[in-house]
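Example for tutorial group B:
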């Protein structure tokens, strides 16, 4: 992936990640529909990438056969970000299982 494209994606991703760690409602929506929510930040997968949705909001990205190095690199970028979003959801699940609040909930309890 070219540096300019990577910088563009990273800049938009930073906005998504910042909002996710500071806004629990947004984070829940992001976990439920990562690709849809990221589109709101002008982040969209290349059209030639196939998306398979599985159990537990898992998303598998399938590159076309003979994909360019540029496309493969961008798909790798997306896989890493989707894995981070999946971890956001796992963190939320752990908090619910243990009856603890996330970082914002803990602050609210002290008030």
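The residue assignment follows.
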């Amino acid at each position: 992936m070219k540096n300019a494209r990577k910088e563009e994606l990273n800049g938009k991703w930073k906005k998504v990640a910042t909002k996710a760690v500071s806004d629990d409602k947004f984070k829940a929506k992001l976990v439920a529909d990562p690709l849809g929510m990221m589109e709101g930040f002008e982040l969209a997968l290349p059209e030639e990438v196939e998306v398979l949705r599985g159990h537990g909001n898992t998303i598998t990205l399938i590159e076309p056969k003979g994909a360019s190095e540029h496309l493969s690199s961008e798909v790798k970028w997306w896989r890493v970000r989707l894995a981070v979003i999946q971890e956001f959801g796992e963190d939320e699940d752990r908090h619910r299982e243990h009856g603890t609040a996330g970082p914002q909930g803990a602050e609210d309890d002290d008030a």
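The beta strands are 50-53, 59-62. Compare this with the pattern of hydrophobic and polar residues in the output above.
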